[in-house]
Amino acid sequence: MFRSGSWFGRSEGLSVGDGSTNPARLAVLLSGSGRSLENLIEHIDRGALDATIAVVVGSRECLGVEKAKAAGIPALVFDGGIGGDDLDRLCAEYGIDWVILAGYLKLMPMTDAVRGRVINIHPSLLPAFGGKGMHGMHVHRAVVEAAKLGKVSETGCTVHFADEEFDQGTIIEQRRCAVGSEDTAEDVADRVFALECDCLPSAIQSVIDGAG
Hints:
Layout: E1 24-30, H1 35-45, E2 51-58, H2 63-70, E3 75-77, H3 84-94, E4 98-101, E5 118-122, H4 136-148, E6 154-161, E7 171-178, H5 185-210
Parallel strand pairs: 1-2, 1-4, 2-3, 4-5
Antiparallel strand pairs: 5-6, 6-7
Helix pairs in contact: 1-5, 4-5
């Protein structure tokens, strides 16, 4: 499924399975606070994720972009979301191996160059509570309402390969937690984000390890 080596003929980059120790180069796309970005940086810094964040892209000016700059990571803003040509150019310029959607609220342009290399995290157990407009607290409120009606007793998060539709694509990993009729959306949000903090870096590492 994956090509050995990294994109665009970057010979000095990732070459999984051939003994190379070079970390995978990530582009992180976001639209909000950058909590998932901070989590990835933490995992990388303590050696739990064999990667480096080469560039951060925001769909708007946001706290996540500010956090990237404060961490010394190049950060760019494409108001309304990055287009396919700009994405391909950016991946070539920064030698990107994987594109990570970490709270990115725009539909990803799926070019031939990035197809199969884009990973998204979603705050529910897909395919439930996914699709256009289902993000952040919108998801957690819907889960809580369903729990009050006795329709669900658990929720969680999903990391999956992204494609041309919102929250579709092959699932890589999921984490689960209980949800009850007395829970608030804020309760669920906190519980699910704690799961995301483990699930996203774990899933990224698994695809890095399996890319050869």
